[in-house]
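Dear colleague,

Thank you for sharing your sequence with our group. We've completed the structure prediction you requested, and as agreed, I am returning the results in plain text so they can be pasted directly into your records. Please verify that the sequence below matches your submission; if there's any discrepancy, let me know and we will rerun it promptly.
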Amino acid sequence: MIGLLEEKDNIGSVKDVSLSNRTITGYLAHFNSVDYNNDVIMPGAFTKTLIENKGRQRFLNYHNFNQPHNKFDVLKEDQTGLYFEVKMVPGVSYSEDVLKLYDAGVLEEQSIGFHVVKKYTEVKSGTRQIQEMLLAEGSNVTLGMNSNAKFTGFKSFTPQKCTDHITKIMSFIRTGSVTDETFIQLELGLKQLQLYSYELGKTALETKGEPESSTQIKAEPQAIEIIKLFRESLKNH
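Please find the predicted structure tokens below.
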């Protein structure tokens, strides 16, 4: 939470990414599913805010209001959740990076910043059911790359998912071309994956006596070294 604005990370999904059209489509939130904070967004929760604040919400880079990508071309509720379409502005460095990361599968999920309307919220069996919220923004997020926001998405990670994300990041690092700031974010994501992988291995050791091989990520230090070398090369130019 930043100020009075709540954030929900990793609750939306990507439907499609088009590099040629510079367009990302998918969901900022899904209805009727319990998230990591035991919250459920109910159908119709965005109806009022989409009418009253039409055209005001922006698609941001990691909840950073100083790094907007663009206004949403489409932002609407359907049976699944809050559907969006956004076209990234050409020539904006962080937007260019985000498009590449989506295309490479490194970025896969979205988040929202919002205020809950308390009188339309109730708790049932320990789960907060949100029936109305004021939507402030939607953002690209994954792997805890936003150092200013608490990351909870690893709670849903399996050892195999950790390995898959590391593979995607390392593949992108070797072939991708992004700004130094984005490489720093990738380094942070890898370090957090390494820490979580260690915790998974420790838990497996305590319960089974032997950690799963998929929790023993050996390639991560090499990836971080590649990032550091890239950053040094930028400084020398």
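Summary note from our side: Residues 144-153, 214-220 have pLDDT under 50 and may be disordered.

Kind regards,
the structure core
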